[in-house]
Amino acid sequence: MSRDHGHPVRLGVALDLAQLPPHALTGLAQVADEAGLDLLAVTDSTHSIEQVSEPSGPDPWTTLAWVAGATSRITLTTHALAPTGPATVLARAAANLDLVTDGRLELGLTVVPAAADGTASPAVGVHPDAGALAETISILRSMWTADGEPVRGAGPAHRVPGADPGPAPAHDVPIWLSGTDDTLLDVAGRSADGWWMDATASGVDPSSVSSAQFRLDVAARRARRDPAEIRRLLTVATIPAVPDLVRWVVEDGVDTVVVATTEPADIRRLASEVAPAVRDLVAAARTARGTRSGPSRPARVRAARRDGIDYDDVPAGLETVEPGDARYAGMRSTYLRGGRPGLVLLPRDTAQVAQALIWARTQPVPLAIRSGGHGISGRSTNDGGIVVDLRHLDDIEVLDSATRRVRIGAGARWGGVAEALEPYGWALTSGDYGGVGVGGLATAGGLGFLARQHGLTIDHLRAADVVLADGTIVRADEQHHPDLFWGIRGAGGNLGVVTAFEFEVDQVGDVGFAQLAFAVDDLAGYLQDFGALVEAAPRDLTPFLIVGRPRGGRVMAQVMAVVNSDDPETILDRLQPFARLAPLVQQSVQVMPYTGVVHRTDDVHDAQGEPVTRSAVLEHLTPQFAEDAEQLVRSGEVYFFQIRSAGAAVNDVPVDATAYAHRTANFQVVALGASRERLDRSWDAMSHHYSGFYSSFETDLRPERLADVFPDRTLTRLRAVKTTYDPDNVFRYNHSVADASAQASPGGVPAAP
Amino acid sequence: MSDYGHDLLFGSFITPTNADPQGPVRLAVSSEAAGLDVVTFQDHPYQPRFHDTWSLMAYAAARTERISLSGNVLNLPLRPPAVLARAVASLDLLSGGRVELGLGAGAYWDAIEAMGGRRLTAGQAVTALSEAIDVIRGVWDTSTRQPLKVEGTYYGVRGAKRGPAPAHPVGIWLGAYKPRMLALTGQKADGWLPSMGYLKSQQELADANARIDDAAAAAGREPSAVRRLLNVGGSFTTGTNRGFLQGPVSQWVEQLGALTLEHGFSGYIVMGDDERSLRILGGEVAPAVRALVAEHRVAAAVTR
């Protein structure tokens, strides 16, 4: 009977620290990395040498971390590492190495019996039994689940009173165990992700890899685990014959074979000749036998799956994160909205986005598209549905420096964009925060600190790669799919997934960045004066105003403003009028690059609950609006009230040029409150002041909001474009413009929940 | 007033936050590009928002070619010394002799204990550090085949394997402030690495230096066997002197030069995680301080 459980086949190389001088080791690692091997194992055969008079070889963990820095794509693992010191520190070391390598780390562990060399001393910190290893594994997994609960270990080897968990690694770091004694097999059967056999020394005879696994399978079943979920790894001393390799995989259930070698030629031959042949033959054998392929997650992860998603049907090669995975905590929620998606898909390129989309359509659950997950509206997550997370599509490439044409992936964040453009003396106006993702903002509008001079982010878009609802990939610009190109500039969330944007960016040197705090008694008067000053100001000034909850009857207003000039006199000239609006309690004005204003941050968005926000655009801060706004602020109902400049250059663009149609507004406002009902009541009562809404800041999902986001003529045209490009209303979870009738259209589209 | 005559080192002090995992690596690469001599990393293994400093150093070492790397300072209570010695020697071998060992006795004992580390009193921690240095130097010493034996209360070893030996004589730099730590620095360390922020005055610097000198002499060592390094914060401004290292480049040059010539410091590690400051430090401050110090040393030699 075949033991093959359909895990992906991997071939790798094992580098033995006892046999390689350091410089040779780095070179071999790089050969393996470039040759395209799957796995590089760092091992230390001196563990088994009892002669303490022989000097110790290099430290395997340090070597692995070094090799991580010297390579770029190959998966890295320790092999038979005997953990030393506190398990909590090893957990952090492993998680962080996985983060810095973007998920290339695996952890092969073992137990080294206490030798005569005093390894049990606190100076070395080895815990020489399988029980200690079980404790280590438990602590590792708890530390990697960054859910806030303190990590405890009862001992006897690891007494941990209560360590802060985290960070979560970049992917679920698998733990492989090596060893053949019964107590270790018990631990492996109970809690390892894989068991590593070694046929280089006295361990396992390659001809008996099948029978050697019998005891492990027994241990797994005793622990009520399916032996199929425990991967099998094998180290051999020389490159095996292809038929042997194929037999080990399809008969004996081994999915990873590493060859212990010190020869670059071996590594190249393994990668270029042996690996392709093995893969083809295994694939053919598996097809012939009907072996189900694909990685299967352990039972503890599968237990957290949600209904309605066929997890085992995800297209091969697509990276996934499930609710039971360690990384889920950092991906489920957005900046302000808690989420509980059933599955996160992490495509690597546009083709995989299409693949993910086509597959997601077959699943009867909600669908969200996420770039940075910052959107105030929170539409980039859901409950029980699928999230297509574009974070890997984060390339930033200058296409033509003469025309300042830059291509930016949807998963990049604006702080990273600012940083990439700074060396050229360029910038692209975005929002007011570097942690915002490119995709969401650049398909909705993009109202940033250079708006009055340089317009909206979408006004700089010249072309885009779009994955349509049926998986078709198109390039949209003024000549190709012009209707789509019009639509994605303001209503992208309705029409497709933009995976890459081509922008014409601006020449921007250092700017003046002011943060002014005012103590305001007469808020209505202050807002009116602020509005008048902004409208009259030269375009190089773009101020945003934030008001919080009043404290003790006093309102604090904070103005954050960018003056697009590095000349101190110009900066002061622009700001001076604002300083007279009310008593200044704090002020800071600095000349800095745009990267200082919109700076790189990789904050994890992990909100809980539902945000309560309303948004609007308006032409002027009229006395009537200002009075209503003061009343709203003084009611204590909103804890954050922001007014952004939205005019000047923004309004140079004709109203029908883009799906963002608010081209007469000079201001955009957003309020965050505590109660949906109370905020809606207050905001609705102010609706006569407003000329429209901005979709990214809006969490009011009532259907009438659609007409506020898209005025009549825009909505009519959008509906026509929608019918062409998304006839089945696949993209319906973000202010869908489709008629009610479109939602019931045929085509296998599930009903909206 | 003493100048121990060491070549000057200029370095960066990096906060190893992991929110952007590559961020500290970029700062290390920038430190090298700025022409600095050493890049150092804080070590707080109990802080989940930080990288594991040791692994980060190994990774960053592979991403750089010339610059030296050190913890500033590594947390001994959570890093068993025999393992640490092997790790340091290994990275020194892999990187071609670019590693120094900044080491501390430990602080924040609640956090150390919460991680599963052993809580020690301040006095016990100094003794433990002293034993750890013996273990570390013993592991590095492969001139003998005798298994390593170190008597001790906290880190005693009875017959451990030695090796590997590092590629170059790795300096053990101690973060020390209190009298017993300063005495241990003079007795056993290769460098003293305090932070200016924890020292109240230049007088305190002078007093501490004197304690190290005395302890070195008592142990039969030259005071110059202990390099004096200093973590400093500051900012570069175009305006006037706003305090210690708060001013233009010329002021930095003058103040650091004085620390070398009057207090014997020969390593300046600048805090702040700011690329612009690193560029100014490496490109403008370092050459000018070196020139100033060289001039005075020549003059002093001639006068003698």
From TrEMBL, chain A:
Give start and end of each FAD-binding PCMH-type domain. 337-508
Say yes or no: keyword Metal-binding present: no
Keywords, ordered alphabetically: FAD, Flavoprotein, Oxidoreductase
- Coiled coil location: none
PROSITE patterns in UniProt = FAD_PCMH
Top-rank taxon, per record:
Bacteria
Kindly provide the name given to this protein in its UniProt entry. Answer: FAD-binding PCMH-type domain-containing protein
Q: List GO molecular-function terms, semicolon-separated.
A: FAD binding; oxidoreductase activity, acting on paired donors, with incorporation or reduction of molecular oxygen
Q: Give the species this sequence originates from.
A: Cellulomonas aerilata
Family assignment? Belongs to the oxygen-dependent FAD-linked oxidoreductase family.
- Can the keyword Hydrolase be found in this entry's annotation? no
- Which is one Pfam family of this protein? FAD_binding_4
**Requisite cofactors:** FAD
UniProtKB/TrEMBL annotation, chain B:
Name the UniProt key words of this record, in alphabetical order: Oxidoreductase
State if Oxidoreductase is listed as a keyword. yes
Annotated Luciferase-like domain residues: 18-231
Gene Ontology molecular functions: oxidoreductase activity, acting on paired donors, with incorporation or reduction of molecular oxygen
Name this protein carries in UniProt:
N5,N10-methylene tetrahydromethanopterin reductase
* Species of the source: Cellulomonas aerilata
Taxonomy, top ranks, is:
Bacteria, Bacillati, Actinomycetota, Actinomycetes, Micrococcales
Instruction: Quote the gene name from the UniProt entry.
Output: hmd
